[in-house]
Write a structure and sequence with these properties.
This is Guanine deaminase. Keywords: Hydrolase. GO terms for molecular function: guanine deaminase activity. The chain is an alpha+beta fold and 142 residues long. Helix content is 40%, strand content 16%. A four-stranded mixed beta sheet has the order 2-1-3-4, with helices on both faces. It is globular, with a radius of gyration of 17 Å. It starts with a helix and ends in a 9-residue tail after the last helix. The mean pLDDT is 95.
Length: 142
């Protein structure tokens, strides 16, 4: 990691501290172009915004998908205070961002939580009703 990238990652950590000071979980992220110019930054607002999806990584991925053309998005780097969760990782992948650099890993975050607290797994069942479910999907991705 270059000194300039370290500076951008430190800014993401500052955004995490701002989120915590505002009463939200301590996570912050920013999106930079290939030259290191900050295009957008966000912090977690899940508590104050009463929105479980208001993770900074997800907000930036949505912003990039709306505001950037694919080539520009692919040339960006997201700097984030913690490794993106599954929800955010999926959004990042779909948005076409080029790279993610994070400070804390998911495992390191778990070590900082009392008892390694994690969200409970929700059972999933399926596949089911394949013949019916395939009708609206067939041909869409061609």
């Amino acid at each position: 990691m270059t000194p300039d990238e370290e500076t951008l990652l430190r800014r993401a950590i500052e955004l995490a501290a701002e989120a915590r000071a505002a009463g939200d979980p301590p996570f912050g992220s920013l999106l930079a172009d290939a030259g290191g110019r900050v295009l957008a930054e966000e912090r977690n607002t899940t508590v104050t915004g009463r929105d479980i999806s208001a993770h900074p990584e997800l907000k930036l991925a949505v912003w990039a998908a709306r505001e950037l053309d694919p080539a520009t998005a692919a040339a960006t780097t997201m700097f984030t205070s913690c490794q993106p969760c599954g929800m955010c990782a999926g959004a990042i992948q779909r948005s076409g961002l080029g790279r993610v650099v994070y400070a804390l890993s998911e495992g390191q975050l778990g070590e900082l939580k009392p008892g390694g607290a994690a969200w409970p797994q929700v059972p999933q069942e399926g596949p089911a009703l394949l013949d019916e479910a395939r009708v609206p999907v067939e041909g869409y991705y061609r």
